[in-house]
Amino acid sequence: MGDAAPSVEEFASEDMGSADDLRAFAALCRPAVIRGRFSDWPAVAAGRQGGAAALSHIARFAAGSSAEYFTAGAELGGRYHYGEGPGGFNFTRETASIGDALARIAANAESGGETAYLGSLPADSHFPGFAEENPCGLLGAGVHPRLWIGNRSTVACHYDGYDNLACVVAGRRRFTLYPPDAIGDLYVGPVDHTLSGQPVSMAAGAPDAATAYPRFAAARARAVVVDLAPGDALYLPKLWWHQVEALDHVNILANYWWDGFAAGPDAPYAAMLLAMIAIAERPGPERAAWRAYFDHYVFRPDGHPLAHLPEERHGVLGPLAKGNYGRIRTLVMRMLRGG
């Protein structure tokens, strides 16, 4: 557990101008704000004219599809979390056409009644043409945007398993960030009963956090708050905890998820789940022994585990890109099949 508040570096748009710039910074696993990086997007220009103009602009791209629509009563102030409602949540979800959902979000903005949002919509399928008119320029051609459109809301503190570039299109966004090693002080909820995919902190944003979650004070002392205006972007490394507040009556955000350092299709999270069932409930001394082996072979604080041998004798512990990814994966799959 760390005890110092992390820092968030800020870049001017011209100082983070290419995919190579972003990749080099991403290797540091630190968050960064890129001010004004997307100020020239037509969608951002529309957003600066107000919520109605922003929604009208986005509606131009709507493909007539339907999507999951989240809504909550005005008394909740837009805080989407666990509760006593259906499924144990304080909000409801339904399937709505994109056109109807945008109209309801616009009506909510006028009435100040319920809050709602459309979340994580792949732009290419729901808003074709958006990505072409509003290009990113910081990521490869295979990374596509998702759109988040709604009223005032607070999305519960969670982490992503991928790197995230979040670009504000309309309204203001506030991100409250916690480093990965704050996990023990965040009182994380179930991994298999979640609000929308990822486990969330039970403590962050809770009105009774001081009494119900006493260790949260240590996490809160390390929190960093980042405010973003239209055109600004936040690079958020994978596994960084973040609570996201949409601060205006109408808010639109485009985000990009990718894993720039993956050697293949297998995600680290899958390895962690497998380790849970293989190791987590073994006796403490045995877990400590496995920790030493994980450090030696996986986390490598002292360098490559076979540094004392010539590279040609490293076998499957040689570079993954030279065929060893597939060789190790074949061994693992054979073990999982019991072969």
From TrEMBL:
InterPro entries: Cupin_8 (IPR041667), JmjC_dom (IPR003347), RmlC-like_jellyroll (IPR014710). Residues 110-273 form the JmjC domain. It comes from the Bacteria. This is Cupin-like domain-containing protein. It comes from Sphingobium indicum.
